[in-house]
Amino acid sequence: MAYNRVLQWSVMTRSWWLYDAENQCAFKSARKIVDYLQGKHKPIYHPLSDIGDHVVVINTKLVAMRDDRWRKFTYSHHTGYAGGFSRASAWRLHDMDPTKVMHKACYQRIKGNLLRPNIMRRLHLFPDDNVPDEIMANISDQIQQIQIVPKQLEDYSQLERDNFPQIFEWPEKEMMPKKKQPELLQTEDT
Amino acid sequence: MNVIQQVYSISRPVQQLLRYTCISSYRHFTTSTTKHRREIIEKTEGNTTVIEGNIIPVDHSKLLKPQTVEGNTVACPLCRLDLHPKLKYTDVLILRQFLTPEGEQLPKKISGLCYKQHREVKNLIRQAYRAGLLSEYQFPEGHPRRSQRSTWKWKKYNVYFEEEDKFRF
Ligand SMILES: [Zn+2]
Q: Name one GO cellular component term (chain B) (predicted).
């Protein structure tokens, strides 16, 4: 069985994975990525055996958050000195560095011990899909996205729209709602 | 005798009745095309010109879902469908049917929805605009309705919604 032999090789080696973060929740996708970084997707996992894989995440600038989280979710930091506390909302942090939200989501997901910095070194984040060829040459497989990217109305063709079943029919003698007309300003009268 | 003197001589309930008739006469008389499903046709035969407003026939009989169950009409078009899973904000082709050409929601009088479904569709349409799925509809001035391009700084990035999320202003 050649296939089983290849599986055994891939367990022992450090393979590279690709993940597209476009329109994906940052926290939900971090939960999945961290398993690959630590090597939890392998059958021989043990925290002290160093068998984690590399993950390359692209399009981190287009990452999505739920409902109001861009405004409400905050990141806080303390320098250690008096008056050194600072806090920024998620959209402000994303303005400064478009890879920071994804980095922090993965960092907070991993258990805080001395292995964490080495695990985080295997995560490669890119704001766009411009990845250097040296990194792209290593990649062997892709991690599946967790959410379905929603389709815009512009993406549907005219034939698809016409053949879509209609829910109700307009009443024949009913009026359309009135259009809003701009209010006239009375400036020249006076 | 003057008209005003006549009116003052009449008792109060009759005065109110007269007022109502005056107001209502404004409403019934229209010259513009308020009913958008009619077509205006002009015919000239010699000196006489005839202007007709004919109803445009629209045949949806093949695509339309059945509106009756055992001969009885069911109240609301969405309750009648009974969708599983529930209607989401990403189902743009269904939400599009509840919109005017300007991109606003149709009133209940036309769509025939009950109050509960009307409120939910209103919520879903706003979520779809917020996520930038209905950016095809624009204001008459040319402003895109997509709120991601708005001046609010936290609205320029991608968002998604779950089932229990209610859109806040
Ligand atoms: Zn209903």
A: mitochondrial small ribosomal subunit
User: pLDDT tens, B119-128?
Assistant: 999 999 989 9
- The more confidently predicted of residues B90 and A190 is B90
The interface predicted TM-score of the complex, written ipTM, equals 0.85
**Which tokens go with B80?**
């009648």
The secondary structure element, H or E, covering residue A57 is strand A54-58
Q: Is the pLDDT of residue B6 over 50?
A: no
Q: Give the three-class secondary structure for A158.
A: helix
- DSSP letters, A2-51, are HHHHHHHHHHHS--EEEEE-TT-BHHHHHHHHHHHHHTTTSTT--TTS--
pTM, to two decimals:
0.72
Interface list for B 10-29 with A (CB within 8 A): none
d(CA A51, CA A182): 67
Whether residue A9 contacts residue A140, with contact meaning beta carbons closer than 8 Å, is answered with no
CA-based nearest distance B21→chain A, Å? 22
Contact in structure between A87 and A75 (CB atoms under 8 Å): yes
Sequence-ordered alpha helix ranges (H) in A39-152? 69-72, 90-96, 100-109, 116-120, 133-136
Closest Cα partner for B74 from A172, A166, A168?
A168
Q: Give the Å distance between the CA of A59 and the centre of ligand 1.
A: 42
Distances (CA, A) of B57 to A80, A175, B40: 75, 16, 14
Contact B102 A68 (CB under 8 A): no
The DSSP bridge pattern shows strands A16-20 and A139-142 to be parallel
The tens digit of pLDDT for each residue in B67-118 reads 666 666 666 888 877 788 899 999 999 999 999 887 888 888 888 898 989 9
Task: Determine phi and psi for B38, rounding to 5 degrees.
Answer: -110, 155
* CB neighbourhood size of A45 (10 A): 14
